[in-house]
Structure formats: structure tokens, C-alpha cells
Design goal:
Number of helices: 9
Helix content: 25-40%
Bound molecules: pyridoxal-5'-phosphate
Strand content: 15-25%
Order of helices and strands: EHHEHEHEEEEEEEHHHEEHEEH
């Protein structure tokens, strides 16, 4: 077996230890005589799996007891609708920060349901920075403020948590949740699709302050009401059991890495390796303002874009996969989520050096 260094933005690579454990338990989970995919979500085995997953996530993020942890389906994209459906609570409008493709999509979805105010928009600057707190034109009467704390495509990560007073703050953390400690009590709601930094695609994690539950827009399906999930332990219907199980193993793996403090240290080291190299090179460039650069998603361009296809092909031959940039930005993008080892980033930098020497 030979595994490549996988720089995919998502679905992304998983820790090898976790995959090995999944393999070992696939046919017979802990002596149950069956695998997790085959067992009832209401039986004692799966109950212990989902309870441990929630407990470990609570421990990792130090989630206060007045927050509920929900396991949903529909991806982060479903949250673009579920957030306004549940959090408007009769108010006239919601505030949105637009800092990239994902927050733009969230805004478009909210617009279908309510009136929205854009409190800052960096599209004119091609989404190359996070707006500062002082730039935010906040409405104190807004139902909530929504932002995307790490824009996966443009590689922009907020270096601060916006302050919106008593207005609940909602964050799409899909592509950097669990990469660093975060003060959950600053947020009304946090959501994240799993396939970037949590586990396999199919489960979406929602962390929501309990006072925000219970007043969805009238006429909405029960499946779009957070309270349905909160009242039923995320099992109103059959939850994505296998994805929750693997996410739980990733949480245990994270605890073995020293929790979020430990993984943050490694993420800082990996990001510095790559950005320092790009900044020192005249051949590669990253357009994002330094303070706002993402530790997880590093887009970069080559001085000669006609070499892009050759770069991707030769990278692949060197064991570096899924490095091509998003079509809306071009160039390359290295996603270096929690499971990416420091050696993977070193291998990428070595390849980039060598490619520049030959073609630059
Ligand atoms: C990938 C991503 C999404 C979309 O996730 P889906 O699971 O495909 O719905 C939303 N927001 C961010 C920040 C993402 O990175």
C-alpha cells in the first residue's frame, strides 16, 4: 500500500490511525459480531458511540452546558437555510458578512427567506482579506450576524471573532473547526460539514445555544427545526451512523494529539512552512493579506499560469494529489487540515522548489 499526500479541500484526507481502526472494526465492532454500518441506531452499541462522540467533541471545544450538540445531514449548505428558518424568531432582518464564495451562498439562501443586510463585503478586493471589526456596519436589532470564519476557496481566515453585542453570532466553521481552540460562548450557533476537518461526508455538526431553539418560522418541516434534533438526541430519524462513528474516532485521535492546543501548534508550524516558502519565492504568490491568511487552505499561483497543468501532473508523480486550485480562483490550493502531517507539507515545499528550479 502506498498513500499519497492528499491536499484536497474536501472530502479531505483522514488520519491513517483512524482509517486503520475503521478497517479493523469494519466487520466486528468491539465483539458485537457486526459492523457499525449494520447496527441499529437505537441499540446499545450505537448509543454508546454517539454519546462518546458528543462527549469528546464537548471536551475538545470546551462547549458550555447551555449549548446543544446536534448531528444533522444536508451538509453545511443545508445550514444556509436552517439558520434563517430557526434564528429569525420573528425579527425583520439578519446581518451577513460577505468574505468569499461560501458566505455569498449563505447570503443568497437567506435572501429567499428574509430581508438581509450586508455589513461588509470584500468582493471588490477579490476576497483577499477579512474586514476589521471597525468596518462592520452592524444592526443592533438584527436576528443574528452570519459569517464564514474560514473561507475555504479564497484562503481567508478571520484572525478575530466579531463582536456583535447581544445579537447572536453564527459561524460557518466547516473548513477550520477543531484546528485551534475557540471560545464557544462567543457564538449563538456554530456549524460545520464534516468532510473538511471532522470526518467523512454525511454528517454536519451544529453547536447551538439552547435559548435560540424552539421558535422556527411557521409551516417549516420538522426536519428543518433544530428543536426536533435536540429533543431526540439527533435521532428523530436515522442519523448518518457510520459518519458519526468515524467522526468520533477523529475526536479521540485529536485528544491523543494534545487536543486543540496541540493540533494548533502543529497547524501553525505547517502553515508557516508553506507561507514562508511562498513569500521568499519570486515564482509563487499568495494574494491574501498576511494577518488573514488561512492555516487550513493555502491558495497560490505560479508566475507563469501556462505551467499550471504541468505542475499538477508532476506533483502527482511526486505523490502530491488534489492540489489544483478552485476554478473560481485558478492556480493551486493546498489544503492542510489537521490530519496532514508536517512531512506532507515538507514534501510539497520540496517539490515546489524543485519545480521552480527546473521551470521558473
Ligand atoms: C465545503 C463548505 C461548505 C459546503 O459544504 P457541503 O457539505 O458541501 O454542503 C460550506 N461552507 C464552507 C466554509 C465550506 O468549506
Amino acid at each position: 500500500m502506498s498513500r499519497v499526500f492528499n491536499f484536497s479541500a474536501g472530502p479531505a484526507g483522514l488520519p491513517l490511525e483512524v482509517l486503520e481502526q475503521v478497517r479493523d472494526e469494519l466487520l466486528d465492532w468491539h465483539g458485537a459480531g457486526m459492523g457499525v454500518m449494520e447496527m441499529s441506531h437505537r441499540g446499545k452499541h450505537f448509543t454508546s458511540i454517539i454519546e462518546a462522540a458528543e462527549a469528546d467533541l464537548r471536551e475538545l471545544l470546551a462547549i458550555p452546558s447551555n449549548y446543544r450538540v446536534l448531528f444533522l445531514q444536508g451538509g453545511a449548505t443545508m445550514q444556509f437555510s436552517m439558520v434563517p428558518i430557526n434564528l429569525l424568531r420573528g425579527r425583520a432582518s439578519a446581518d451577513y458578512l460577505v468574505t468569499g464564495s461560501w458566505s455569498k451562498k449563505a447570503l443568497a439562501e437567506a435572501r429567499r427567506l428574509t430581508s438581509v443586510r450586508v455589513v461588509a463585503d470584500t468582493e471588490a478586493e477579490r476576497f483577499t482579506r477579512a474586514p476589521a471589526q471597525a468596518e462592520l456596519d452592524l444592526d443592533p436589532g438584527a436576528a443574528y450576524l452570519h459569517y464564514c470564519s474560514n473561507e475555504t476557496i479564497y484562503g481567508v481566515e478571520f484572525p478575530y471573532v466579531p463582536d456583535c453585542g447581544d445579537v447572536p453570532l453564527v459561524a460557518d466553521m466547516s473548513s477550520h473547526i477543531l484546528s485551534r481552540p475557540v471560545d464557544v460562548s462567543r457564538f449563538g450557533l456554530i456549524y460545520a460539514g464534516a468532510q473538511k476537518n471532522i470526518g467523512p461526508v454525511g454528517v454536519t455538526v451544529v453547536i447551538v445555544r439552547d435559548d435560540l431553539l424552539g421558535a422556527p418560522m411557521p409551516g417549516m418541516p420538522l426536519m428543518l427545526d433544530y428543536a426536533t434534533y435536540a429533543a431526540n438526541g439527533s435521532m428523530y430519524n436515522t442519523p448518518p451512523t457510520f459518519a458519526i462513528y468515524v467522526a468520533g474516532l477523529v475526536f479521540q485521535w485529536l485528544k491523543r494529539q494534545g487536543g486543540l492546543v496541540g493540533i494548533e501548534r502543529r497547524n501553525i508550524e505547517k502553515a508557516a512552512l508553506l507561507y514562508d516558502f511562498i513569500d521568499a519565492s519570486a515564482f509563487y504568490a499568495n494574494p491574501v493579506r498576511r494577518e488573514d491568511r488561512s492555516r487550513m487552505n493555502v491558495p497560490f499561483t505560479l508566475a507563469r499560469p501556462e505551467l499550471d497543468a504541468r505542475f499538477v501532473t508532476e506533483a502527482s508523480a511526486a505523490g502530491i494529489e488534489q492540489i489544483k486550485g478552485h476554478k473560481s480562483v485558478g492556480g493551486m490550493r493546498a489544503s492542510i487540515y489537521n490530519p496532514m502531517p508536517v512531512d506532507g507539507v515538507r514534501a510539497l515545499v520540496d517539490f515546489m522548489k524543485e519545480f521552480e528550479r527546473r521551470c521558473g
